[in-house]
Amino acid sequence: MMHLECECGNRTNLFATGDRDEHGREYIELEDDDRFSFMIGEDSIVFKCSFCGYRYRLKNYE
Which residues contact residue 22 at a Cβ distance below 8 angstroms, ignoring those fewer than 6 apart? Predict the structure, then answer.
C-alpha cells in the first residue's frame, strides 16, 4: 500500500487490486476517489487534492 498526503492534511491510500498486466505489473487504485483526482499526461501524472486544490506532479523517469 502507498500513502498520499497533501499539505492541507487530506490523505488517501493507493492499494493493489490483485490484477496484473501482460508484463506482470500489478494495478493500483485510489482508496477514496473523492479526496484526490489524477490526470495522466505525456510524461507525468498529476494528483490534485479535492479539498484545497493543490497539485502534485510525478514525472516519468524511464
Answer: none
